[in-house]
UniProtKB/TrEMBL annotation:
Residues 150-261 form the CUB domain. It comes from the Eukaryota. Keywords: Disulfide bond, Repeat, Signal. CDD domains: CUB. This is Cubilin. It holds the Pfam family CUB. Residues 1-18 form the signal peptide. SMART domains: CUB (SM00042). The keyword Disulfide bond applies. Coiled coil: none annotated. Gene3D superfamilies: Spermadhesin, CUB domain (2.60.120.290). The lineage of its organism: Eukaryota, Metazoa, Ecdysozoa, Arthropoda, Hexapoda. The keyword Signal applies.
């Protein structure tokens, strides 16, 4: 080994020795850093206490949807206090580009459910009688992950409409967007798309919109579409639904508009 090569080699060894260990993952916050008290919402934080009507009552047939977005891959939920009845339910699932994972019911105080997806969906489904509130805590931990949630909305009015992209123009490549429709006054809204302009392919494998209907305590995919053909309307008979939009890495278009009432 000549002297230059030796120095280079020693420098390499020094750098390799000094290199930090691979990040094993971020621990959970010791205590929730945020507090959420609304019926539904977009919660983007590393930890939160979600407290809805604790010690108070919740009307029959109420639906609330929280889209919860942690910075790390693992989202743990712990039920701290609950006045919910057997006929009510708090449900958790994960959301990613590939869809929505199976619902898990958070029913017992002290119970933990961990969602291994950066985006979790928490759904409160109240039975046909008034009930009492609850409190749960959420903690994000683990390795960082750069999956995007390029758009989101929570539509809670009795009727409304929505356009994406919000400011017009073309949607982006590699989009992964999620929109929840859950009127806070219980109802059975019907969702109608009024304009659709997406990249088209026969299986809608490039860009697509999927509509999920909250039914029997699960989000059932009722339609997946692309191109410019308006799909048939969907009635959310159990009071809530989701619209999920994903795009691939090339060819964009002008997106979509829908209304519900
Ligand atoms: Ca595309």
């Amino acid at each position: 080994m000549n002297p230059v090569a030796c120095i280079v080699f020693l420098a390499f060894v020094a750098v390799a020795t000094a290199a930090p260990q691979p990040l094993q993952g971020q621990p959970e916050d010791p205590n929730p850093i945020d507090t959420v008290t609304t019926c539904g919402g977009f919660v983007e934080t590393s930890s939160a206490s979600i407290e809805f009507q604790v010690g108070g009552s919740i009307r029959a047939d109420m639906r609330c949807v929280w889209i919860i977005r942690g910075p790390y891959v693992s989202q743990r939920f712990n039920l701290v206090q609950s006045g919910l009845k057997e006929t009510d339910g708090l449900f958790l699932s994960g959301h990613s580009r590939s869809g929505i994972t199976a619902q898990q019911k958070l029913a017992t105080v002290g119970q933990n459910i961990t969602i291994n997806s950066r985006t979790a969906i928490l759904t409160l489904s109240v039975g046909h009688a008034p009930t009492l509130g609850f409190k749960l805590e959420f903690f994000s931990s683990g390795s960082s992950e750069n999956s995007v949630l390029s758009g989101h909305a929570l539509l809670t009015t009795a009727k409304g409409n929505y356009t994406y992209p919000v400011n017009g123009g073309q949607y982006g490549n590699n989009e992964n967007a999620l929109f929840a429709i859950a009127p806070t006054v219980p109802g059975q809204p019907t969702l109608r798309f009024t304009r659709v302009n997406l990249e088209n392919d026969s299986g809608c494998t490039y860009d697509s919109i999927r509509v999920y209907n909250w039914f029997d305590n699960d989000y059932l995919q009722v339609v997946r579409f692309c191109g410019t053909t308006i799909p048939t309307s969907v009635t959310f008979q159990d009071g809530a639904g989701l619209v999920a939009f994903v795009t691939d890495s090339s060819v964009t278009s002008t997106g979509f508009e829908f209304q519900y009432e």
